[in-house]
Design goal:
423 residues, alpha+beta, BirA Bifunctional Protein, domain 2, Rossmann fold, 2 domains, 8-stranded mixed β-sheet, 5-stranded mixed β-sheet, 16 helices, elongated, binds histidyl-adenosine monophosphate, aa-tRNA-synth_II/BPL/LPL, Anticodon-bd_dom_sf
């Protein structure tokens, strides 16, 4: 027996019954981005593995455990399915010298890939909408990005989402903090798990992100980066808070907010909901002032930047949880017909109706009037248009409402369009 082939675990089909929600979301995002002056950029899904190793960081879960990297069997190149979009976006901006024209406000959307253990809200192929503002150094752009998110949640009918912000300071303040943190963790070496010991010298900040409840106490008592901040970073963070307050955006400061990617400095933030269980982070981002130079290599290409990405599956699930009402688009008419002459008239009719701005489905395949009428009903159309010999002879069509008790009428085409649009 032939084995049936199924989709890869953690990689989902998005079916027609779900797509109207996706399309509503995508249209809302496009309008929202345009209103703020952000332009769309589209990068390839596959990049050189090294791009992600260098930007996200070699000692991160994403690169160490979750990245789909492989050797191209045709030429031996080391490639990876993108686990996120920031690195690709920065690469594209540098490759095409976009920053020569000045700062760039950009966004992208599409599938990302991480080999995580699949569960509700966590997939191996998932979708992000990512927004990157490159060439801006001030806290005003950080605030703009956050205010934009707050506005989008409203547009999508999402509530029950809270904002956590934090700051990672400058490279120097992190270095100072790192030394203090390593000193503290070394004093508690016996209580660290294997993962934490392994990361003690390579990435001690990530230890604070551990989910191991036995290390909770150690983590809670660890020195706080906020206390080691340099003056400029502190001022940046304080202005950001003021701007958010001015714009009426509520937030909590989380001094322990650690992101799973190494490129961040200063501002980091996460939007979290309690409605989606363990996978409550719907959107996250921050500032990455060093990344452009790191990827571009030359100090001349340095440009401060800030951005975020949201997990589309999680945002949509939250919309459903919040009961956002999205009207499912239905066809206006389903055209049923019988006989050769009626078939010709039916083709003309659907063309005329569509040209008039109506959504019209032509019945294809066999079936008597009764069977076709059933199909019309299942299609969800508001009206059936019926064309038989009588209609062909009279040069008219019959219209039968499918969602209300009103009776059938026979009218000419122009009148039909009026009637269908009016109702
Ligand atoms: P991230 O926190 O790794 O950041 O991902 C952003 C969002 O993508 C998460 O908050 C979550 O909603 C969603 N997400 C991540 N992994 C999965 C998964 N396996 N299944 C479903 N959804 C997931 C970034 O990717 C950065 N590039 C964000 C950024 C842009 N920072 C600056 N600019």
């Amino acid at each position: 027996m032939t084995r049936t082939i199924q989709a890869i675990r953690g990689m989902n089909d998005i079916l027609p019954d779900q797509i109207y929600l996706w399309e509503f979301f995508e249209q809302t995002v496009r309008d929202w981005m345009t209103a703020y002056g952000y332009r769309n950029i589209r990068m390839p899904i596959v990049e050189q593995t090294d791009l992600f190793v260098r930007s996200i960081g070699a000692v991160t879960d994403i690169v160490e455990k979750e990245m789909y990297s492989f050797l191209d069997s045709l030429n031996g190149d080391s490639l990876a399915l993108r686990p996120e979009g920031t690195a690709s976006c920065v690469r594209a901006v540098l490759e095409h010298n976009l920053l020569y024209a000045g700062p760039q406000r950009l966004y992208y959307s599409g599938p990302m890939f991480r080999h995580e253990r699949p569960q509700k809200g966590r997939y191996r192929q998932f979708h992000q909408v990512g927004v990157e503002a490159l060439g801006y150094s001030g806290p005003d752009i950080d605030a703009e990005l956050i205010v934009m998110c707050a506005e989008l949640w409203k547009k999508l009918g999402i509530s029950d989402v809270r904002l956590e912000i934090g700051t990672l300071g400058s490279a120097e303040s992190r270095a100072l903090h790192r030394t203090r943190l390593i000193g503290y963790l070394e004093r508690h070496l016996g209580r660290l798990d294997d993962d934490a010991r392994r990361r003690l010298h390579s990435n001690p900040l990530r230890i604070l992100d551990s989910k191991n409840s036995e290390m909770r106490e150690i983590i809670d008592g660890a020195p706080r980066l906020l206390d080691d901040l340099d003056e400029d970073s502190l001022a940046h963070f304080e202005t950001l808070q003021r701007l958010l307050r001015d714009q009426g955006v509520d937030f909590e400061i989380n001094p322990r907010l650690v992101r799973g990617l190494d490129y961040y400095n200063r501002t980091v933030f996460e939007w979290i909901t309690g409605k989606l269980g363990a996978q409550g982070a719907i959107c996250a981002g921050g500032r990455y002032d060093g990344l452009v130079e790191q990827i571009g290599g030359k100090p001349a290409s340095a440009a401060p930047a800030c951005g975020f990405a949201m997990g589309v599956e999680r945002v949509l699930a939250l919309m459903v949880e919040c009961g956002s009402e999205i009207l499912r688009p239905v066809p206006d008419v389903y055209v049923i017909h019988q006989g050769e002459a009626a078939n010709g008239a039916a083709w003309k009719t659907v063309r005329y109706l569509r040209d008039s701005g109506l959504r019209a489905i032509l019945h294809c395949g066999a079936g008597g009037f009764k069977a076709q009428m059933k199909k019309a009903d299942v299609s969800g159309a508001r009206f059936a248009v019926i064309i038989g010999d009588d209609e062909v002879q009279a040069g008219e069509i019959s219209i039968k409402p499918l969602r209300e008790a009103a009776g059938q009428v026979r009218v000419g085409m122009a009148e039909a369009v009026d009637l269908l649009k009016r109702t």
